[in-house]
Write a sequence for this structure.
């Protein structure tokens, strides 16, 4: 067998290639993530550079409508920023915030989960109780709360600057228990297997066993949760920003763009809110679709 | 049983202790309350005097002890903004939130469970696939976008339903209800649909997954082998076995609804506790913020306690685990 | 989808079921609710507006802001105070008589420690009851503008206040709300029927009002429902749920005008928007340069020339503003056609001035801005950031809620900030004493000019009107040259009103239902 055939035979890859939904979703996700990450290269303008913005170009409709200008494909916002560029930059911020928040939650959750599952006993009980308690309070409320308190502790001058980090921490701190639960479960299964027992007997230190043998085996389910978590994190950021508790409008995320655009909903400037909203929904939908497929593909019981 | 409940109670007290510490810290770190209470042209001396009157210059621990003592008695002081007792304000706003959550919960549970069961049984039918795809869109739509879209469509464009507010309430003692008048029902339709959609899709997907699991279990296979009617299998055996997780779902569901009511109430100007909380955040009305946090935490702790006990009663296996 | 169809059908059935209205009910909305019904507790726009429908003052303003008699029928100035003849036969809503006792009591209450009107009321040193319907308000020396200062000091009933234990406004350390927070007993054209804060307040016509038949208004019932979210507020007007929106967002004005059965009224507001530059500190807090560039008048001029006020008017304000070179609008004594025009937009000259002042590469600075106080406040600041970037000044914008913004100005913690100022007295003294006097409590610019300081003091007692006006205008000319502020524009008010009702708009943004006519 060639390497390609062996690769194709892998059950996950097979499932992927035979599911058009998953492929479309993956394509949309990858394209939008790439487009956003490389926004500085693709976007015709830099909306974060104030000296490039001219107020007189504000509120222009998309290029194909009456009064639109060709250089502004999707029109301009109320400040004269090119919508397309602003959405790309805003999407980048949203994705980065989402990824960072999920990573924070994942690192925290997996670490605690593996320790909890491997060590057991009192450590396990304490960690899992904390996770239980936190799971009882819905993420978005907790995020509003952490965000509010986090901002309050920062001196005023730093608030704007650190708004992004506060949002990341607020969202990241709310979803670690999910990761911890899954990682703990996988760890407990793995820890009882013979090769781990053997490694323990020959005296390998616990941290080495955990990192080298246990951790890789928790990754599959964790990946599923991370994908769904990414979608939720992007929505959480958008919601926080919509409530005016998130990212400031000088460097807008998708949520901030929708909030600002919402003020123009009745004035006929539909493109200021419509395009960012579509971008957000498509992005989240694609990520969700991917997560959905991954859950089914990685769950042998449902195949 | 007694030991189990005691343990849960202890946990609950711990949660409340943490939450109270957080809400107290709000008093000391968020904004400057004095500025909200005086007019634009008050002098600096007047401001200093008010600080002293409010006890904002006392040592932190003294202030915390005072806060805890009052909290236990349900006394959160007067709102900085509207100068009325906070506990009274929350009680006044509570019916609006609870009724909204109640209607949304019914919508989410009824629609969510029926669609979940359907898609679980008819796994391969195209209707199931459509429902599932639509539900995925539902999960991907932020609540606020749904709310704005519904207002635009049903209130501004079609003019069928009011765009905001809670009109048509009838007073039953201190409880103002929307359920006894046509206007009341008209007002609650859009916000409750908005609030329920996200939970509905979650429930749908959870119930479906649960159904799929149960349908694979041996005893369903056995029932099928016995030649029982498909209908009887689905409803008498399969559905009944999914009911245990449904209890958890209801718990989570109500919790989620209360959390998201903050957003829905903001979009629809629904005069509940969530709107009051967001307005308090804008105004740095710390007594209301603090009380809302404590109050919501208490609500969650209670819901979870009830769910845990129900669980314990319904499913004996849990006793072994604990 | 069966469900939506069902929803649609039932919704239509419900619409048909709404009852017809027999009396003239005016339903209106704005952003914020009154904080309390206590007329002396909060000096704040929505509270004054709500209480002004229930309570009355000695002197009031009509829709064109001319002084009009209300509870006083006439008044005249003396060397040490003013004598007011009270209106006879006026009754409070609970039926008790209004007389001189109540005037004395109300001033006493407004001057109380816990009152938010003590600054305004302190102009009256004492109230002398001459007879039941004549009072003399004594002032500390001659006061040429006393009636102007009395328009929001409302009269309460002494007996009612004593009976309900509210002889003083609510104290901040009070643990319980007072009776006056949710109950009101005024002399005005409307009585309070029910009140749910931030939700719904219902007022009903007072048939025993002294002015019954003297005013065009024909409203029987007022329902006020505050809506915070701007888009939702406009939606309520567009869908016909309210008849009147006091504060529609400027960008929606065209849409409202274009809708069937709706209209918009606009008027220049008595409020100006401007940026302050702190020239008082030795080193700017947020800048990358040593020292304080704002000490140099050329830098302050460069800032004034770098802001394109016309672009802000056209794009950000939808045309609804008047670009200006003064921080006080026409209508206020002291605003003149010579001083009012805006500084010209000239980025080249601005760059040259910065270079001359020693900043050819510009410098960086933080702009502090509120985001929920003035019309499109944050958007104006964002536009200013882009404009200043073009002359080399790198501005870092910090836009925060007013509750956190204003303390920064009061504590003198901002280098460069946005502020707006309204003038209830329609006299420049109100502007000088707060914003331009070296000691002014809202003057965070560090501006301290001998001529302006002297003028501020002198015009409090100068009763020769022509001379006083000249002094004020001279001070403004000095200020125009010193440029302590960057004036942007005077705000324009826009009210969205249904065609079913005719409401005259007022430059002070107050809704006066006694002039509102339902058709």
């Amino acid at each position: 067998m060639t390497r390609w055939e062996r690769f194709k035979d892998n059950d996950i890859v097979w499932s992927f290639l035979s599911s058009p939904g998953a492929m479309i979703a993956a394509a949309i996700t990858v394209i939008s993530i790439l487009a956003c990450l490389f926004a500085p290269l693709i976007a015709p303008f830099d909306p974060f550079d104030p000296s490039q913005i001219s107020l007189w170009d504000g509120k222009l409709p998309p290029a194909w409508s009456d009064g639109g200008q060709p250089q502004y494909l999707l029109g301009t916002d109320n400040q004269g920023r090119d919508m397309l560029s602003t959405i790309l930059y805003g999407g980048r911020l949203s994705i980065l915030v989402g990824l960072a928040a999920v990573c924070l939650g994942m690192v925290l959750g997996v670490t605690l989960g593996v320790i909890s599952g491997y060590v057991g006993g009192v450590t396990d009980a304490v960690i899992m109780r904390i996770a239980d308690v936190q799971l009882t309070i819905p993420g978005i409320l907790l995020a509003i709360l952490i965000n509010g308190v986090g901002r309050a502790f920062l001196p005023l001058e730093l608030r704007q600057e650190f708004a992004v980090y506060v949002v990341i921490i607020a969202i990241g701190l709310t979803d670690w228990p999910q990761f911890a639960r899954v990682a703990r479960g996988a760890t407990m299964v793995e820890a009882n297997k013979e090769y781990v027992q053997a490694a323990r007997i020959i005296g390998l230190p616990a941290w080495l066993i955990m990192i080298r043998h246990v951790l890789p085996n928790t990754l599959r389910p964790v990946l599923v949760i991370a994908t769904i978590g990414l979608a939720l994190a992007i929505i959480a950021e958008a919601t926080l920003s919509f409530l005016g508790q998130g990212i400031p409008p000088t460097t807008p995320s998708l949520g901030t763009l929708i909030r600002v655009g919402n003020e123009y909903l009745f004035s006929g400037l539909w493109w200021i809110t419509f395009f960012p909203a579509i971008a957000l929904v498509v992005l989240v939908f694609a990520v969700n679709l991917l997560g959905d497929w991954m859950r089914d593909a990685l769950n042998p019981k449902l195949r | 049983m007694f030991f189990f409940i005691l343990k849960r109670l202890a946990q609950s007290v711990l949660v409340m202790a943490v939450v109270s510490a957080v809400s107290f810290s709000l008093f000391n770190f968020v904004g400057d309350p004095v500025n909200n209470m005086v007019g634009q042209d008050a002098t600096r001396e007047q401001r200093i005097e008010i600080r002293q009157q409010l006890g904002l210059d006392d040592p932190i621990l003294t202030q915390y002890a005072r806060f805890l003592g009052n909290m236990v008695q349900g006394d959160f002081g007067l709102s900085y903004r509207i100068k009325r007792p906070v506990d009274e304000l929350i009680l006044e706003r509570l019916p609006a939130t609870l009724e909204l959550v109640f209607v949304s919960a019914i919508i989410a549970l009824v629609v969510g469970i029926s669609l979940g069961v359907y898609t679980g049984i008819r796994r391969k039918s195209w209707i199931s696939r459509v429902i599932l795809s639509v539900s995925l869109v539902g999960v991907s739509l932020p609540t606020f976008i749904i709310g704005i879209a519904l207002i635009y469509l049903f209130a501004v464009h079609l003019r069928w339903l009011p765009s905001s507010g809670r009109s048509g309430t009838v007073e039953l003692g201190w409880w103002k209800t929307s359920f006894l008048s046509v206007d009341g029902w008209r007002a609650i339709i859009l916000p409750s649909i908005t609030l329920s959609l996200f939970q509905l899709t979650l429930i749908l997907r959870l119930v479906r997954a649960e159904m799929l699991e149960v349908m694979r279990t041996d005893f369903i296979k056995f029932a099928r082998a016995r030649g029982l009617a498909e209908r009887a299998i689905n409803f008498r055996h399969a559905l009944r076995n999914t009911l245990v997780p449904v209890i958890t779902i209801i718990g989570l569901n109500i919790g989620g609804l209360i959390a998201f009511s903050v957003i829905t109430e903001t979009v629809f100007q629904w005069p509940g506790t969530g709107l009051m909380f967001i307005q308090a955040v804008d105004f740095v009305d710390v007594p209301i913020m603090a009380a809302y946090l404590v109050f919501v935490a208490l609500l969650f702790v209670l819901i979870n306690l009830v769910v845990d006990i129900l669980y314990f009663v319904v499913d004996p296996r849990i006793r072994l685990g604990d | 989808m069966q469900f939506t169809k069902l929803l649609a059908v039932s919704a239509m059935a419900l619409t048909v079921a709404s009852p017809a209205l027999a009396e003239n009910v005016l339903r209106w909305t704005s952003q914020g609710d009154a904080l309390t019904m206590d007329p002396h507790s909060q000096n704040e726009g929505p509270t004054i507006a709500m209480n002004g429908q229930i309570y009355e003052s000695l002197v009031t303003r009509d829709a064109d802001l001319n002084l009009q008699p209300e509870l006083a029928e006439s008044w005249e100035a003396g060397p040490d105070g003013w004598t007011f003849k009270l209106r006879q036969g006026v009754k409070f809503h609970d039926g008790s008589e209004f007389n001189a006792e109540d005037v004395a009591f109300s001033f006493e209450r407004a001057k109380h420690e816990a009152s938010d009107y003590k600054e305004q009321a302190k102009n009256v040193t004492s109230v002398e009851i001459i007879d039941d319907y004549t009072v003399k308000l004594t002032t500390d020396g001659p006061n040429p503008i006393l009636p102007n200062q009395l328009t929001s000091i409302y009269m309460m009933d002494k007996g009612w206040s004593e009976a309900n234990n509210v002889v003083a406004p609510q104290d901040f350390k009070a643990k319980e709300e007072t009776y006056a927070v949710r109950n009101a007993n005024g002399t005005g054209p409307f009585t309070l029927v029910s009140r749910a804060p931030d939700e719904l307040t219902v007022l009903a016509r007072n048939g025993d009002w002294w002015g019954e038949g003297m005013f065009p208004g024909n409203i029987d019932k007022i329902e006020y429902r505050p809506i915070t979210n701007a888009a939702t507020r406009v939606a309520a007007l567009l869908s016909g749920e309210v008849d009147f929106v006091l504060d529609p967002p400027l960008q929606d004005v065209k849409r409202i005008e274009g809708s069937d059965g709706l209209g918009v009224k606009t008027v220049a507001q008595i409020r100006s928007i401007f940026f302050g530059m702190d020239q008082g500190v030795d080193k700017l807090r947020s800048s990358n340069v040593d020292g304080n560039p704002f000490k140099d008048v050329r830098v302050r001029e460069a800032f004034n020339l770098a802001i394109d006020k016309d672009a802000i008017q056209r794009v950000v304000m939808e045309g609804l503003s008047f670009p200006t070179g003064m921080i006080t609008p026409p209508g206020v004594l002291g605003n003149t056609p010579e001083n009012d025009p805006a500084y010209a937009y000239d980025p080249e000259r601005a760059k040259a001035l910065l270079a001359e002042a020693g900043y050819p590469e510009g410098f960086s600075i933080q702009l502090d801005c509120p985001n929920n106080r003035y019309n499109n406040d944050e958007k104006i600041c964002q536009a200013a950031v882009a404009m200043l970037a073009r002359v080399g000044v790198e501005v870092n914008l910090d836009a925060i809620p007013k509750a956190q913004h204003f303390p920064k100005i009061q504590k003198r913690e901002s280098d460069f900030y946005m502020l707006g100022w309204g003038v209830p007295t329609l006299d420049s003294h109100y502007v000088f004493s707060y914003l331009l006097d070296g000691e002014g409590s809202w003057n965070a610019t560090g501006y301290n000019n001998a001529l302006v300081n002297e003028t501020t003091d002198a015009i409090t007692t100068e009763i020769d009107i022509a001379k006083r006006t000249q002094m004020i205008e001279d001070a403004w000319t000095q200020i125009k040259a010193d440029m302590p502020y960057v004036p942007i524009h005077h705000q324009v008010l826009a009210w969205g009103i249904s065609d079913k009702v005719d409401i005259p708009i007022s430059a002070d943004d107050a809704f006066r239902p006694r002039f509102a006519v339902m058709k």
